[in-house]
Specification:
The protein is mainly α and about 80 residues long. About 55% of the residues lie in helices and about 10% in strands. Helix 2 crosses helix 3 and helix 2 crosses helix 4.
């Protein structure tokens, strides 16, 4: 699944996580999360996989783009 910057921010909001917390949990740098969420760069596939897995393991469901765009839900 392709993670959108807006999904990442929304997922962090549902979890009440900071960028720093997501970075620590996913094993990436805070600047990677910050720059992705600010549309400064796209994620490498491996980094995206780590972040998606981390969010999903924390209880977030990432919804694919559909009629209304990508979304998130908490389990």
């Amino acid at each position: 699944m392709e993670l959108a910057p807006e999904q990442c921010r929304a997922a962090r909001g549902l979890l009440n996580w900071t960028q720093e917390r997501l970075a620590e949990e996913a094993g990436v740098s805070r600047s990677t999360v910050r720059d992705f969420e600010c549309h400064r760069h796209v994620l490498h596939r491996g980094t995206e996989t780590q972040i998606v897995r981390t969010l999903q393991e924390a209880g977030v469901m990432l919804l694919p783009s559909g009629e209304h765009g990508p979304g998130v839900r908490i389990r």
